[in-house]
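Sequence, please.
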C-alpha cells in the first residue's frame, strides 16, 4: 500500500516537474515558438486545398507544391497591385499626421464644453489626450521595433516560415505519427482522435478568423472611400488587422479614420458618418458573418477572452494579443477532447 502511494506521489511529482520545465523551455524559446505557431496557422489555411487535390488522385507532395506555387503567384500579383498603392497612401497618411497639430482642435472642443459647463477647467482635456496619444503611439513603436528586428526579419518571413509550412503540410502524417510514437498502444487511438479533432477545429477557427478580418477590412476600406476619407486603403487594412484582436476591432478601425477626417476636413463633420459606418459593419459582422463562419466559435466568455488578450500583450506584445485566443482554443480543445476520449475509453473497458 505504501509502495503504491509512493509511486503515485513520485508520478505526480515527475509530471509536475516536466510541466514546469516545459513552460520554462517554451518561454526561453519564445521566438522559435512564435515562428512555429505562425507556420502552423498558415499550414492550417492551406489544408482544405491540399485535401481537395488529394481526392482528385494527386499525391501529397505534388498537391503541396501546386498549392504553394499557386499561392506564390497570387501573392505576387496581389502585392504588385496592392503594395505600391498601399505604400503611397501610407506615406500620405504619415505626412498628414506629422503636419497636424491636435492641440488646436482640442482647444476648440474645450471652449465649446466650457460654454455649456462653466465648472469645466480649460486646458485639462488637451493635456491629457495629447499625453495619452503620444504615450500610446511611442509604446506601439517600441513594441513593433524589436519584432521587426528579430522575429519578423526578412529571413524569417520569406525563408524560414514558408520552409517550415511546406514540410508541415507535406509530412503532416509523419509528424503526427512521430508525436504519437511515445504514446502506449492502449491510448494510441484515443490520442490520435484527440489530435485530429484539435487540428480540424483549430483549422476551421483560423480560416474563419482570417475571413472575418478580411470582411471587416474590405468593407470598412470601401466605406471610408465612399464617405470621401483620404487614404481609405491603409485605413481599411488597419481596421481588418485590428479586428484580428477580439473586441478591439471597432476602436482600432474607427479612431484612425476619425483622426484623418478631422485633418482632412478641419472639423467633426464626417464623424457621424464614420461612427455609423463602423457600427453597421460590426453589426453585420457580429450578427451574420461571425455566426456563419465561426459556427460554435471559441465558446469562451468575453471576460476570459479579454483577460487572455491582456496576458498575451504583457508576454509577447502585439503578437501575443493576436495569438492569445487561438492558443487558448488549442489548450481548451485538447483538455476537453482528452477528457471525453479518456472517459469513453474507461467506459469501454468497464
Amino acid at each position: 500500500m505504501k509502495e503504491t502511494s509512493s509511486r503515485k506521489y513520485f508520478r505526480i511529482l515527475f509530471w509536475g516537474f516536466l510541466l514546469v520545465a516545459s513552460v520554462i523551455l517554451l518561454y526561453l524559446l519564445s521566438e522559435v515558438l512564435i515562428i512555429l505557431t505562425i507556420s502552423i496557422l498558415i499550414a492550417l489555411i492551406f489544408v482544405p486545398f491540399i485535401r481537395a487535390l488529394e481526392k482528385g488522385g494527386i499525391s501529397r507532395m505534388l498537391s503541396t507544391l501546386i498549392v504553394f506555387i499557386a499561392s506564390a503567384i497570387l501573392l505576387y500579383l496581389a502585392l504588385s497591385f496592392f503594395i505600391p498603392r498601399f505604400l503611397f497612401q501610407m506615406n500620405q497618411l504619415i505626412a498628414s499626421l506629422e503636419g497636424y497639430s491636435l492641440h488646436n482642435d482640442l482647444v476648440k472642443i474645450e471652449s465649446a464644453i466650457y460654454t455649456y459647463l462653466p465648472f469645466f477647467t480649460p486646458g485639462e482635456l488637451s493635456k491629457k489626450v495629447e499625453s495619452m496619444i503620444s504615450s500610446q503611439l511611442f509604446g506601439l513603436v517600441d513594441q513593433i521595433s524589436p519584432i521587426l528586428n528579430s522575429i519578423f526579419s526578412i529571413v524569417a518571413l520569406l525563408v524560414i516560415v514558408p520552409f517550415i509550412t511546406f514540410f508541415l503540410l507535406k509530412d503532416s502524417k509523419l509528424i503526427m505519427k512521430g508525436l504519437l510514437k511515445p504514446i502506449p498502444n492502449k491510448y494510441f487511438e484515443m490520442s490520435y482522435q484527440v489530435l485530429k479533432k484539435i487540428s480540424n477545429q483549430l483549422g476551421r477557427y483560423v480560416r474563419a478568423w482570417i475571413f472575418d478580418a478580411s470582411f471587416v477590412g474590405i468593407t470598412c476600406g470601401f466605406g471610408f472611400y465612399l464617405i470621401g476619407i483620404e487614404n481609405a486603403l491603409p485605413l481599411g487594412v488597419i481596421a481588418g488587422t485590428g479586428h484580428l484582436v477580439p473586441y478591439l476591432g471597432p476602436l482600432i478601425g474607427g479612431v484612425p479614420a476619425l483622426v484623418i477626417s478631422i485633418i482632412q476636413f478641419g472639423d467633426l463633420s464626417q464623424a457621424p458618418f464614420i461612427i455609423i459606418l463602423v457600427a453597421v459593419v460590426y453589426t453585420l459582422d457580429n450578427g451574420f458573418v461571425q455566426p456563419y463562419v465561426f459556427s460554435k466559435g471559441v465558446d469562451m466568455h468575453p471576460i476570459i477572452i479579454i483577460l487572455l488578450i491582456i496576458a498575451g500583450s504583457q508576454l509577447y506584445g502585439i503578437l501575443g494579443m493576436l495569438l492569445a485566443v487561438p492558443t487558448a482554443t488549442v489548450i481548451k480543445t485538447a483538455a476537453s477532447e482528452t477528457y471525453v476520449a479518456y472517459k469513453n475509453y474507461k467506459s469501454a473497458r468497464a
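The CA atoms of residues 210 and 244 lie 8 Å apart.
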